[in-house]
Structure to design on (174 residues):
């Protein structure tokens, strides 16, 4: 899948709205799981605490959307997406934009700046302690699992995948 842009919106009174209207460049960060790494989990190379994470950095240029229909389409799609997430977690019937009165919609429209973010570059960042010794990686994975925290469990699983690949490569099992 090739993605060349994404859309969003913010309140027109937001200080960033003027920069978007001027076609500013920007950096969008999308964060995945993350976890604190305690030095008490190191056995071979004891160092300072660190943080493991997975993220994507997207650089690009903002293009304001000026048409009413484009703006409403961005808002409708955003609301539908967010309502689907909320109802998936809590149940119930999703709220729909059509439940707003026409007067309300007309009043809200000037308060919103919709934009397209034209992507120029995408960089994935995985900071998973992959430079650590195997013994330390195994202990970090065990320590993360012991916390039981969702982010820690996800980071432990990703670190385990990396460790398995390293060990497989070392054993000549490519």
């Amino acid at each position: 899948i090739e993605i060349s842009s994404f859309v969003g919106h913010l309140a027109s009174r937001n200080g960033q709205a003027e920069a978007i209207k001027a076609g500013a460049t920007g950096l969008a960060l999308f964060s995945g799981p993350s976890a604190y790494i305690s030095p008490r989990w190191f056995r071979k190379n004891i160092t300072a605490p660190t943080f493991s994470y997975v993220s994507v950095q997207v650089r690009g240029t903002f293009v304001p959307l000026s048409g009413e229909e484009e703006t409403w389409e961005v808002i409708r799609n955003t609301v539908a997406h967010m309502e689907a997430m909320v109802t998936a977690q809590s149940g119930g019937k999703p709220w729909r934009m059509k439940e707003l009165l026409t007067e309300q919609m007309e009043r809200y429209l000037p308060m919103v700046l919709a934009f397209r973010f034209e992507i120029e570059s995408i960089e994935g960042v995985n900071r998973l302690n992959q430079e650590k010794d195997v013994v330390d990686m195994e202990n970090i994975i065990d320590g993360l699992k012991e916390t039981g925290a969702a982010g820690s469990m996800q980071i432990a699983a990703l670190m385990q995948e990396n460790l398995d690949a390293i060990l497989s490569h070392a054993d000549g099992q490519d």
